[in-house]
Each structure stands twice: as structure tokens, then as C-alpha cells.
Amino acid sequence: MAQEIEHIHLPIRGLNLHVAQVGKDELGTVVFLHGFPEIWYSWRHQMRAVAAAGYRAVAPDCRGYGLSDRSPEHEEAAWEDLAADVLAILDALDVPKAFLVGKDFGAAPAYEFALQHPERARGVVSLGIPFSPGPMPFDDTMPEGFYIKRWREPGRAEADFGRYDVRRVVRTIYVLFARAEIPVAKEGQEIMDLADLSTPLPEWFTEEDLDAYAELYENSGFRYPLQMPYRALHKIPDRRDARFQVPVFLVMGEKDYCPKFPEFEAGMKSGIMERFAPDLRIANIPEGTHFVQEQLPEKVNELLLGFFKDRPVAA
After folding, report:
1. pLDDT digits over 256-309, tens only?
2. Tens-place pLDDT, residues 17-54
3. Taking a C-beta distance cutoff of 8 angstroms, is the pair 53, 38 a contact?
4. pTM for this structure?
5. What is the DSSP string of the chain?
6. Of 40, 80, 89, 210, most Cβ neighbours within 10 A?
7. What is the Cα–Cα distance from 151 to 153, expressed in whole angstroms?
8. Rounded-to-integer distance, Cα 39 and Cα 17, Å
9. How far is CA 142 from the centre of its chain?
10. Where is the signal peptide (predicted)?
């Protein structure tokens, strides 16, 4: 019988952060860090799998997301907060050392935590996002209608999203981000115009899943999610001198649109990650999209558990 996922709130650096957890920690702890438009729920398949294998799974809602508190409106989103929140969560749960698994913008605090606190990290897994040693402005490489350029404009996404209810917004983003093509609007279009209700959800994403996401975004709104990551991308710390002291595992879906970003594509072709991560493993999932952990959970779980098994507690 599958273990039940437990939900708690922890006082973390002035905010109450929601944390989902399951498992007994017989083999160690795995911290899952979500991206956008996700929350803890996006890791439901991985959490149960690692718990069944003997690990404790911990999946927080990032500050400003899901059931976690939002930062005060006057505070700007800062990448440094995300890694500091991870450290504080581990301390609050009395976890001395953990594997970090990050997806989308959640890969950034996973990487940063491992660089800042190698003594607390057993390894880092990133789904779809290579390590970036600095900001990626996209100004010279992507067209005006590129979704990140649109969403980093104050007020533009708010007006675009505001035409629809939260459920419709989350639905549209899941449809668009599950495609192999980078979401780009034409002149006179907004990003929400790129899909409508006649466009089916991905076959692996149910109406019940959509209900779960919509309920959590009804709670949090989109104010902080638009700040982090989209309006903070230019503030990613400069880490050109970075060198990982822990193993790094990059899992790439070949139908994920993110690796098509010119900055990521050039970096992967040049082998730049090997310069920063001497102990690097890369796996490609041919049918994998941006949501590979929800789309193909058994494959992702197999890869994760293989990586963890190769690095037992005594290592």
C-alpha cells in the first residue's frame, strides 16, 4: 500500500512555507524543487516512488506558490532566497544531507545549493535545464513575441491572464509548454491566444490534475510566479567560477522546447557543463517534453533511483 503524502507548514525565514513529504528516510532524503506553472503536486509520482524505495521525499511549494506564503509586495524576487529557503527547510527537518532534484527554474536553487553547501548535498538532478553560469537575457536571440520577453514586461501577463479564470490560464500554459515548439506570439497576439479550449490537454494530464493546480493557483495568484522566474532572470548570480563538488545528473527530454533556447543549445553542444561539473551524467528521453516527470513518470523514476543507488549514504 502506498504511503500517504503528509502536508506541513514550516516557519522559514519569516514566511510559512508549505512542504509535502512522504517516506521513512532509510536511505536518505530527496528534495524536489518545482518550476512554473507547477507546485509540489508536479512531483507526486516521484515522491511515492522514492518513498517506496526507502527514501524520504520532501517537496516544498516555493515561496509565493501554492500554499506557501507570499513575500511582501514591496520585496523583489531574489534567486538567493530560493537556495537559502532549501537550507532552512533541511535544518527545520533535521536533514543533514540530501539529494536535490530541480525542474525548470527549480533547477537554479538546486544547483546553487550544491555549490554553496556541498557538505549538505549528496547530488543534484536537473530535469531539462543545463547549468547556466550567468543571466540569459534573450534580447538578441529571441523574437519579441517570445513568452519570456512578454511575461517579463510588468503588467502585460497580468492583463493577458486576467481575461480568463485561473483554471483556463493553467490549462493553456500546460498545453503550450507540453509542445516541442517554443511559445512565441505573433504581432497582435498574446500568449494566452496561442491555445483555446478546443485544444486537448496532454493525454497524461487529467482534468483532476488540472483541478489540483487551479485550486493552488487560486490560493497563490500569479504575482510572485511572474516575478520568479520571469522578472528576475537578469539577476541570476554570476557563477562563471563554479565547480561542483557533488555528482550532477542532467535529464533531457528530446521534445522539451527549453533545450532549443539558443543559449542552452549552444552550451550543450560546446560541452560547457563538463567544465563546471567533473562528475556529470546526462540522459536523454526521446519522447520527453517539458513535463517529463508527469508525462513519463516510470522512466524518470527509474533514472532517479539509479542515480541515487549509485551514491549510497556511506559515499
Report:
1. 999 888 878 777 777 788 899 999 999 999 999 999 999 999 999 999 999 999
2. 999 999 999 999 999 999 999 999 999 999 999 999 99
3. no
4. 0.96
5. -PPPPEEEEEEETTEEEEEEEES--SS-EEEEE--SS--GGGGHHHHHHHHHTTPEEEEEPPTTSTTSPPPPTTSPP-HHHHHHHHHHHHHHTT-S-EEEEEEGGGHHHHHHHHHH-GGGEEEEEEES----SS----TTTS-TTBHHHHHTSTTHHHHHHTTS-HHHHHHHHHHHHTSSS--BPPTT--GGGG--TTSPPPTTS-HHHHHHHHHHHHHH-SHHHHHTTGGGGGG----TT---SS-EEEEEETT-SGGGSHHHHHHHHHTHHHHH-SSEEEEEETT--TTHHHHSHHHHHHHHHHHHHTS-TT-
6. 40
7. 5
8. 12
9. 22
10. none
